[in-house]
């Protein structure tokens, strides 16, 4: 059975953390979707609060301590990411931004990414599209169409016996899995797509 490496990045600050709870739900839903495709999920979870000091030191020294270096390598080796952040001042956390700032900005080329966020009000849900999605688009990742936001009222809510949050989680996981199914063949190790030399492309055009 083939394996897909899924790395979960949780930006939650507290214990327990609603961001970690959402991240775990997204990871488990993705695991189930991969299982349905006869693919084995190898899930690694990175808690950024445990790396906060290392990230700050890396920002000012350029050197990643061992724990942070391992986390960065896990992201580099991943077939897909699940990234969840709490909302701070209408955006993602500074700790999450700092983590991706110390990551080589070519690592996420073509990588499927599922984004999620948690906050104290549903009014902050647009943060996913005006802040998080542009971040990963800038890093040239492929972001799943469905982003999942969870406000306090989302936990256990829903109609007709089916929690609304569970429905969004399932849909997002299905999209991520669909993107991931061909990851090994779609991404080159350096993240670049192969193309023909310019002269060959020009000759093809002139020959039409």
From TrEMBL:
GO terms for molecular function: FMN reductase (NADPH) activity. SUPFAM superfamilies: Flavoproteins (SSF52218). The keyword Flavoprotein applies. Residues 5-155 form the NADPH-dependent FMN reductase-like domain. It is an enzyme of class 1 (oxidoreductase). PANTHER family: FMN REDUCTASE (NADPH). This is FMN reductase.
